[in-house]
Write a structure and sequence with these properties.
Number of strands: 5
Oligomer: single chain
Low-confidence stretches: none
Order of helices and strands: EEEHEHE
Radius of gyration: 12 Å
Number of helices: 2
Structural class: alpha/beta
Helix content: 25-40%
Length: 74
C-alpha cells in the first residue's frame, strides 16, 4: 500500500536522491503506491526511536499528506 524509502543523500528542494530514483523506476506502473521518504541527512543516524516514529507517521498518513515524514523539514 505504501513505500518508505530511507535516504541519507538529500538534495534541498528535491528530497532524497535515492527516493527520486525509486519513484522514477516505478513511475507509470499500475497501482503505483505512494512513496514516502525518511531523510537522514546531516549525520542523523537511524535509531529504533526514529524508525518507530517514522512508521507511526507512515501508518497515520493519507495519500494527500506530505511525503517527507522525517528529515530536514522537521
Amino acid at each position: 500500500e505504501k513505500v518508505l524509502v530511507i535516504d541519507r543523500s538529500v538534495s534541498m528542494g528535491v528530497g532524497g536522491i535515492f527516493a527520486q530514483e525509486v519513484k522514477a523506476a516505478i513511475a507509470g506502473e499500475n497501482g503505483m503506491p505512494p512513496i514516502y521518504e525518511l531523510n537522514l541527512a546531516g549525520g542523523l543516524d537511524l535509531t529504533p526511536d526514529i524508525m518507530t516514529k517514522a512508521l507511526e507517521r507512515l501508518k497515520a498518513s493519507k495519500p494527500e499528506d506530505e511525503k517527507i515524514i522525517w528529515g530536514v523539514r522537521l
